[in-house]
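Notebook B, p. 112. Complex prediction, attempt 2.
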Amino acid sequence: MKKMENQGSLKRCRVKDNFWTPIQELISDTVIPYQEKILNDKVPGAEKSHAIENFRIAAGESQGEFYGTVFQDSDVAKWLEAVAYSLERKPDEKLEARADAVIDLIEKAQQPDGYLNTYFTIKEPEHRWQNLQECHELYCAGHMMEAAVAYYQATGKDKLLKVMCRMADHIDARFGEGKQEGIPGHEEIELALLRLYRATGEKRYLDLSAYFINQRGKNPHFFEEESAKRGWTHFGMDPKDTEYNQSYAPVRDQREAVGHSVRAMYLYTAMADLAAETGDKSLYTACRVLFESATHRRMYVTGGIGSSAHGEAFTQDYDLPNDTAYAETCAAIGLVFFARKMLSLEVKGEYADVMERCLYNGILSGMQKDGSRFFYVNPLEVIPGLSGKWPEYKHALPARPKWYACACCPPNLARLVESLGEYAWGENDTTIYSHLYLGGSYTSADGTVVKSQSSYPWKGKVSYEVKPGTSFTTLAIHIPGWCKEFTITVNEDEIALPVKDGYCYLTRDWKDGDKVTLSFSVKPRRVYADPRVREDAGKVCLMRGPLVYCLEAVDNGKNLCRLLLPRSVSIVTAHEKDEDIGSYVSLRFTGLKEKSFKHLYQDQPPETEPVPVKAIPYFLWGNRKQGEMRVWINEG
Amino acid sequence: MKKMENQGSLKRCRVKDNFWTPIQELISDTVIPYQEKILNDKVPGAEKSHAIENFRIAAGESQGEFYGTVFQDSDVAKWLEAVAYSLERKPDEKLEARADAVIDLIEKAQQPDGYLNTYFTIKEPEHRWQNLQECHELYCAGHMMEAAVAYYQATGKDKLLKVMCRMADHIDARFGEGKQEGIPGHEEIELALLRLYRATGEKRYLDLSAYFINQRGKNPHFFEEESAKRGWTHFGMDPKDTEYNQSYAPVRDQREAVGHSVRAMYLYTAMADLAAETGDKSLYTACRVLFESATHRRMYVTGGIGSSAHGEAFTQDYDLPNDTAYAETCAAIGLVFFARKMLSLEVKGEYADVMERCLYNGILSGMQKDGSRFFYVNPLEVIPGLSGKWPEYKHALPARPKWYACACCPPNLARLVESLGEYAWGENDTTIYSHLYLGGSYTSADGTVVKSQSSYPWKGKVSYEVKPGTSFTTLAIHIPGWCKEFTITVNEDEIALPVKDGYCYLTRDWKDGDKVTLSFSVKPRRVYADPRVREDAGKVCLMRGPLVYCLEAVDNGKNLCRLLLPRSVSIVTAHEKDEDIGSYVSLRFTGLKEKSFKHLYQDQPPETEPVPVKAIPYFLWGNRKQGEMRVWINEG
């Protein structure tokens, strides 16, 4: 359990393959400009954002009222962070100039004492720091710190970094041991302060992060006391609901992933990062327990977490309803953050497996193929007439909207996808880790360069060309948990390697130009849920490689619940090209369709007739004609 | 389509058998006295009622404030109606004296102009008749009219009848063609006015009922206009939600059972009764369409209707979730009312089938075996940790409470069970109909007496001993839809009779003492839901005779979703005797239990091991140790 890597500039990990590069290009060319327009209220018909204007008003450059949620600033922060990664990948002077202008605004919006938050600056300056439970001041600060670090690393420009150091100093002067007691109602600043610490070397930021983490839950009545002291509320949230924000117990005593799932993931990510930074074993143990709780018992097959719309929250073990699933895009993104930090603590394939599950399914599903619309909620079943309409299903929209009043997910997705290289690679003194099968290249601290080519996820072939540096000895390649057979060749020779905790370790006397090729089958497979998952009993999910598949009405007609996939039926792949969703691999099989009854109930099981069935990758759902969708298929 | 019978005094239809008589005795000996105590706030730990005290205050006999819902009076009305049926079945001077005293109070609470409603009399006299949408004045009046008719028929005492005629006159003077426009927000008075008309012969009551029915939905903006006119709200209900109270279209144009399911059933019952009374074919057609909508596509296997807690409402075809089911006891009772009136319009076995389905399952489940606790909501699946706790499942309690703030269901169940004889029998000029297999006797208008003996539902044997009257020619016996084979003997001779629309018609030259015996098997059977019911796909429900069975954790351990019932496995019956639930027949089989996974998802289907499984009648669930329950079993 040692800290194995210092994640830093994206320049060391380039992505270039046929799957992710087009998505990154879409983010750079379409999503980032689109989101910039949104933030500037220039997209007709989309939810009003006003986020840039809020900064303009706070900076004294515009007149008007604050508009939006109390955490509106974070949309700008996440956009700037995505811009930073995009610039790092692909310089763009005009975009950089526009981002610089936004940063100028942010600097001007900062108060003389270092405070930065447009809501409280414009609207309720007298209420600053009184409502950590509901008011997201620390959360917004955290996101802006992340943006500041990313922008600094991408461009070398430190204006925003200095702004956020002043804000961090402001916070540090107020909160901590012997100062004012405080923990954020929405975790985020903890992980951001660790990034700020690493970017600046300022140990106070590490200590402040540790304070927020270690203080959490020590006084489980903190938010109640805070609420009583101030006597006002912003959202009317219950300060006694300490599970919601993971403040019910000290973090090391927490045993289950509970409450608001995004809050939980951001906290756990910070805990794992702090454990890696400090070597704190008790914190590592808590992270491990919480990771198991979240992913062994409370995660959808798509990597979605937080099964209930009420509180956007975890419920209890094995409670994973498909039609009312919340599975917020941000929560799956947060799980990737958490899994990535766990990988830095210990190399275990299951962390990379979770990243892969989330990335290729419950995260990518958050964005329309053309980058113009986004899901906040990612259901595994859509029922026309109910989904998005009936109260229990109101949150589970059957089509992606243009934007949201609470717009956390779209920019979160943008920043993750643009920084994907960091999730694909890792290193320690002698080893380079390939966690994800991304084409591109990785340059390690000792100057080793590994160039990868990948046709994943559509094909099971990845190759690595190595130019060894000074201390490099080992290339460690993740073998996904679902992959039972594979071959590895080095140059022309096939070699047999054991899988150790999900990784193959290839140690040799590396020569410049050595080429390692990994091949495996991505034949369609049937996946089952633990029988304690009530909603998936008797059902099967189709996967191919990392991709979860689903059925849509546009391919299969109405009443998808009438389709059975008999256990003996073979599933074939087909290469498709579609106007709306481009090229992809579908799965096809001859299913059985249950015939409807004369009466609602009868003593005979339904008769069936064979029908052709087509499944498409889950991440592509909702891009064609709106209608029914389901991931879990009844098994015949 | 002619009106075949004039349902009247319960004295003509006596119930006496080993299944229902103990339940009726329980109602008389336990439930009615218990509810009387509740209404008088004498049950510690139960929800406060204050319903009698409200009448006392309105009568000027007590000082204090009104307490309870705006429809609190109806609890007293339904209790009085149950008392009336109980007295008719089994005289009880003391109970009658106490009921007389309550009626004295009600008379004193009536205002000089005939108005009767304690909420508006005590609390908001200035707001009378301004809020038909929300305030239940007509609803409460309707229930008290039903009580008045029942009490008059049971005891011959007409004090309450006169009170309610004055109230009906008061309403008639205000509402109708050429008078103030008005329809009730919660239907009930329509069916009550028809009863009042039949008890008194006053045609104005028939006309007023017809006005309320025919006016409904003619002006779909009525509640909006009413709301705008008064400028205040009681519950904050949306006056535009015209589906909720079935006012979105004229009743003859309504094609789907929508909205609040109890409201819907009370309306449809009145529509069917009015159609029978007037021979109105268009109204009959609407009833038929609505009956099919409610029972062919929107009814649980238990007879429960109204699948959503939001608005206690119907949702859409085949949407019948088991764990979040609402399936209010009152709604199933309302469906029995409706089905019974449809039977008066046309003799079709499906109406009797629906009555039977509701009575033996989704209605009886509403009451604890000992009569002391009640369910409002009747889920088909209970999940510890979620049911009754988590927001989506909050309404689906895992155990019956003592009483409810909105206490509509317990007295509704009491009045239905006490008047069950009326649902069991019917007649027209020459024929007596046995709709339900109840032991007891029926005396027809021509003096025919049919005595029945029944061991239903535990055994498939019913016999009828006939003493023919002047015009009797035919005994028509309902054959349940699920019963495919039966034998009928007359005296000692077996005879073959066709089933016509669910009934066997036995016409002969009847002799005094002729005995007809019906025998059929009640062997366990598997029941399937139409494959369009998403939640029941791949599942099977066990039934025996009219009884739906369920699994409880107390018999089968946790994780009932892991139990499979293979299609080839035989199901045997066992006679049980239990401390808490008495004697009953259980179903037992060797099921397969799916083994849990090492990981949440895996590529192999679960392994299984054989386990003994025990199912109990659904109506008995929740009487032993609290825990998981499910009706629909995964089929292996």
